């Protein structure tokens, strides 16, 4: 009897716990749904240009004057000259101009812009050099193949083309020999003996 009562009591406790757990799950689901619907009903306060108030817009954009400054630096002006060109500096002293120009030079937005500019300039220089080399080699080849040109001129064209590809570079050979220390000692002893110096 006692065991059966224990089993019945345990079963009742388990079913009570299950129903309590189920009711808690239902409550949390209904609470979760209530929270979700409340979030959906909220209306964000926005500024006139449509940005949500209280949310950081992110990185500040570059101004036209900053772009003008970066353009001046990219064109080869000193930071001071570029700052003077981009900003009104009539009421500023030299120290202030230099300080402000250096501050702008440290700004990562300007650094990023200048890196892109210099990368494109570098690529343009490489492209121009390749195009120039191709043009010159083409002209030299035409001149070398021209039957009406003098033989000396045609040979000179071929020589220039050969030098451009490294065929006629003057190579100086440098021979290095391993030095044998015993041989060096013997030669030194012979020289000392010739000059009458005692050999130790």
Structural notes for this entry:
By secondary structure, the chain is an all-alpha fold. Among the domains are: 9-40; 64-106, no CATH class; 117-164. The protein has 7 helices and no strands. Helix 2 packs antiparallel against helix 3 (79-86), helix 2 packs across helix 5 and helix 5 (108-145) runs antiparallel to helix 6. The protein is extended and about 115 Å long. The mean pLDDT is 76.
Which secondary structure elements does this structure contain, and how are they paired or packed?
Elements: H1 2-41, H2 64-74, H3 79-86, H4 94-106, H5 108-145, H6 151-164, H7 181-194
Briefly characterize the structure.
The chain has 200 residues and is mostly helical.
What structural keywords apply?
0% strand, mainly alpha, 200 residues
Low-confidence region ranges: none
Oligomer: single chain
Helical region count?
7
Mean pLDDT: 76
Order of helices and strands: HHHHHHH
* Helical coverage, percent range: 55-70%
Category by helix and strand content = mainly alpha
What is the radius of gyration computed over CA atoms, rounded to a whole number of angstroms?
43 Å
